Amino acid sequence: xxxxxxxxxxxxxxxxxxxxxxxxxxxxxxxxKTVVIDFDVGLRNLDLVMGCERRVVFDFIxxxxxxxxxxxxxxxxxxxxxxxxxxxxxxxxxDALTREGVEKVLNELSKxxxxxxxxxxxxxxxxxxxxLYFADHAIIVTNPEVSSVRDSxxxxxxxNSRSRRAEQGLEPVTQQLLLTxxxxxxxxxxxxLKVDDVLEILAIPLLGVIPxxxxxxxxxxxxxxxxxxxxxxxxxxxxxxxxxxxxxxxEHRFVTPxxxxxxxxxxxxxx
Amino acid sequence: MSSASQVAERDAPFQxxxxxxxxxxxxxxxxxxxxxxxxxxxxxxxxxxFFRNAPVVLDxxxxxxxxxxxLGAFVSQVQALHLLPVGFQGGPQPVREAAMTVGLxxxxxxxxxxxxxxxxxxxxxxxxxxxxxxxxxPAPQVLIEVVHRPTVVVTEPVRxxxxxxxxxxxxxxxxxxxxxxxxxxxxxxHVYGALRGRALAGFSGDGNARIFCHSLExxxxxxxxxxxxxxxxxxxxxxxxxxxxxxxxxxxxxxxxTA
Lengths: 271, 259
What we know:
The complex is a heterodimer of chains A (about 270) and B (about 260).
Chain A (H helix, E strand, L loop, with lengths): L2 E6 L7 H14 L4 E5 L7 H4 L10 H5 L5 H4 L1 E2 L6 E4 L12 H12 L4 E5 L6 H8 L3 E6 L3 H17 L1 H4 L6 E9 L1 H5 L6 H8 L3 E6 L2 H8 L11 H13 L16 H9 L1
Helix pairs in contact in A: 1-12
Chain B lengths: L2 H9 L12 E4 L8 H11 L1 H4 L2 E6 L11 H10 L2 E7 L3 H9 L3 E2 L5 H8 L9 H6 L17 E3 L8 E4 L4 E3 L8 E4 L3 E7 L2 E4 L9 E6 L3 E4 L2 E4 L12 E6 L2 E6 L4
Parallel strand pairs in B: 1-2, 2-3, 3-4, 5-7, 6-8, 7-9, 8-10, 9-11, 10-12
Antiparallel strand pairs in B: 11-14, 12-13, 14-15
Organism (chain A): Azospirillum oryzae
Subunit structure (chain A): Interacts with MinC and FtsZ.
Pfam families (chain A): AAA_31
């Protein structure tokens, strides 16, 4: 039985696509057959972050419109077994996402895949609604700042009222928080919200804290999901989060500032 | 009710039913005062949406016996502020007569007591069987508003962008209310988590309604249109257990003392 996950946030630029790419890769690395779908019609990005932009012929919208078969649009990842990408169209807009069309594609995918990961666009309009409508589980991507927290709160309300599970009175969509771009030093200086502050407002379980890291931008520029960067904190944190998602008990790391040696302290002072 | 009479009821060109409405009462102390409409205008502008085209009953009870003023002009000036005078209560005889001529309905004086009397009109089902036997044709059906409306209870967090309205009753939220969420109740509002959004009690004008919360971090508090924004709440009450109510028509806050 396949599970549909939506990666959503309300606010833009918080790291949904980065997290979708990392998470899908992490699930595939652990042996689950996984597909990640780009719901951001018109602002196609996932293929870039996954490094398969030059292999896109047909897309999600072509499949919805019956212009291509699902197998023609699915792109198999070159690095990892079991990982597939369903890119979206850059030339259409969100109106191309019909509920029936999305449902048809998801039904077909669920016959084959263990996990279907939907990368939601920002906002609470059609694209975001379609990406979360069929979800069984939601990962809420939030940055430690008030506007992001408020938008995440809004999207949680939308999940609780406008998802298929809510509309049909089924078990509610399960929800977990992924706190991204977390900078423990800035938190300590009071420039960012603490993990606890965010949890207090959103009141959902914490899946992981991804530290602010230069590795993220570096990875997305070369089209490599950051989880594959095994020396970066961000990569390790994503890997932990995937483990927790699968039920493993892993302690949270990277939430407190790293102890500084005398040398770096001196450097900082002279800077 | 038998199906035959139901059919008859449906075919009838009208239906007569009892209903109760919440209306504002405008107590008139000094209608000739030069400041009367300036001050009323200030009040109305505090919550223009709340007051727009709101029906009001003019209360002349406190007018001096000897007062002389142009009631027609007075009513049109009230209307100019987008209030709709629909009736009046009390007042010296000449004023009452003048009010009738401009088309205002005389309302029974007094509030709570009279209202209850209306609500407690005899239930036909509880009538003496004797009497029922004597009246084979059922009297025109009068539907009576239920006195007690069940309180609305919310146990899930009220998220940003959500709006909960407890119509004609109280609202209880057992979890937190996020910034950007809105609670509305015609009665009282209780929040047992943190209140971070907006809370508007006495939404239809009940000045006796109150807001109770465990941790006051609200964006806006309002009782019967008297509101306060978070800037004006003050650090003494921030994150404290607080009740909010009208004290002599002014929105006030008190710390809730816990034993």
